[in-house]
């Protein structure tokens, strides 16, 4: 029996599954288990894991129909659009799979506040009101004070500013929230602690627990939205999807005032040439999305431009609630080709092209759903 959750940190919840036999569980899943899970209004963790099993691949159509109904019920026929903006690619970590890895030889860049303003104008001209700002992990080059200064510039152009940066202390999150940040995206990358250690041989990111508990610190600090996920391709996707779902569910239960969402990013080519350890196909990605939607009907699902255009078009009706558009993964990339991107994007459509696609599906693209006072 899979254990439930209690009122403890998610790190302690994760430890409850140390040594759990995922393969053995999957071998025991039957069609009747899948059918029971599909018939329930609220899924238990073992139901979610059953829907992630190889056996559930034969039920994708039924899962898709229910996932579509639940998404429309809780979110309507809308897709929120946002775009990423890279402030700096300076990084001291040695993550084996990242283009910004410290030992990669690239000309590092960092935007000045004036350049942040210039790129913000370019993005705002597309109509977008939600922006996600990113940095590498370098407290010397991108201290919290620098990020706050950039946020104060961006507030003049955007109604919602999210961060995807290194994990912070509680008071640091409070400082950025007071400056105008209302959302946090932070990927654990890998929930398996041993694999995590192997993939992060040096740098502050090696601290698995500090990163894992960052969303909780942000929630306690008063953040409005939190987005979590695992980078698919680094470890077995079914168990990583399971822990992502448990993490999102834990946050939603503990902090009901926070909007919780997840992303299922798949690895893309990047400087350094690190190859995925596990193949995660389109069908696997769809199964993960559908199972997650049935497990967490009120949680958002973010699909980035890592995925190709044709696939993203299909995912509109399968549970996605938020998509990036007009993306660029290079620092200053919208102003000039300053630097190498963190990874290669797949869907290069503009904001206008994305909006037309969403309309063509009978959905409404949303450019603004929040305004920070």
What proportion of the residues is helical, as a percent range?
Answer: 25-40%
Count of DSSP helices?
15
Low-confidence stretches: 1-6
Radius of gyration, rounded?
20 Å
Mean pLDDT: 92
Extended strand count: 9
Spatial separation of the terminal alpha carbons: 47 Å
Query: Biggest sheet: strands side by side, in what order?
Result: 1-2-3-4-5-6-7-8
> How does the major sheet shape up?
8 strands, parallel, barrel
- Give the amount of beta strand, in percent: 5-15%
Q: SSE order, as H and E? A: HHHHHEHEHEHEHHHEHEHEHEHE
Structural shape: globular
* Structural class label: alpha/beta
Summarize this structure briefly:
The chain is of the alpha/beta class.
Describe this structure in words.
The structure is a single chain. With 373 residues, this protein is of the alpha/beta class. The chain contains 15 helices and 9 strands. The protein has helices spanning 10-15, 22-28, 31-39, 45-51, 60-75, 113-124, 144-154, 170-179, 193-199, 208-212, 214-221, 237-254, 282-295, 309-315, 351-360, and strands spanning 78-88, 130-135, 160-164, 181-189, 225-230, 259-263, 300-303, 322-324, 364-366. Strands 1-2-3-4-5-6-7-8 form an 8-stranded parallel beta barrel, surrounded by 6 helices. Helix 7 links the parallel strand 2 and strand 3. Mean pLDDT is 92; it is low at 1-6.
């Amino acid at each position: 029996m899979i254990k439930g959750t209690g009122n403890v940190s998610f790190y302690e919840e994760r430890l409850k599954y140390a040594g759990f036999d995922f393969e053995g569980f999957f071998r025991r899943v039957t069609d009747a288990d899948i059918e029971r899970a599909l018939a329930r209004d609220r899924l238990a963790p073992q139901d979610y894991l059953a829907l992630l099993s190889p056996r559930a691949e034969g039920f994708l159509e039924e899962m898709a129909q229910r996932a579509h109904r639940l998404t429309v019920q809780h979110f309507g026929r809308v897709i929120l659009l946002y775009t990423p903006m890279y402030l700096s690619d300076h990084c001291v970590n040695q993550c084996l799979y990242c283009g910004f890895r410290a030992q990669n030889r690239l000309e590092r860049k960092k935007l000045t506040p004036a350049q942040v303003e210039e790129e913000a104008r370019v993005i705002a001209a597309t109509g977008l009101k939600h922006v996600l700002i990113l940095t590498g992990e370098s407290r010397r080059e991108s201290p919290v004070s620098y990020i706050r200064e950039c946020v104060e510039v961006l507030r003049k152009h955007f109604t919602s500013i999210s961060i995807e940066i290194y994990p912070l202390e509680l008071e640091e999150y409070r400082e950025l929230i007071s400056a105008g940040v209302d959302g946090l995206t932070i990927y654990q990358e890998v929930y398996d602690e041993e694999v995590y250690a192997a993939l992060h041989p040096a740098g502050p990111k090696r601290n698995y627990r500090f990163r894992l508990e960052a969303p909780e610190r942000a929630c306690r600090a008063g953040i409005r939205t939190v987005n979590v996920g695992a980078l698919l391709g680094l470890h077995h996707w079914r168990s990583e999807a399971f822990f992502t779902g448990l993490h999102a569910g834990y946050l939603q239960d503990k902090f009901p005032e926070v909007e919780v969402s997840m992303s299922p990013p798949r690895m893309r080519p990047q400087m350094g040439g690190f190859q995925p350890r596990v193949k995660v196909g389109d069908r696997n990605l769809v199964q993960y999305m559908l199972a997650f939607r049935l497990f967490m009907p009120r949680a958002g699902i973010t699909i980035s431009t890592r995925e190709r255009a044709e696939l993203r078009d299909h995912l509109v009706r399968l549970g996605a609630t938020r998509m990036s558009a007009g993306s660029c993964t290079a620092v200053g990339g919208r102003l000039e080709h300053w630097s190498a991107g963190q990874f290669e994007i797949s869907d290069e459509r503009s904001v206008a092209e994305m909006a037309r696609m969403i309309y063509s599906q009978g959905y409404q693209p949303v450019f603004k759903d929040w305004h920070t006072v």
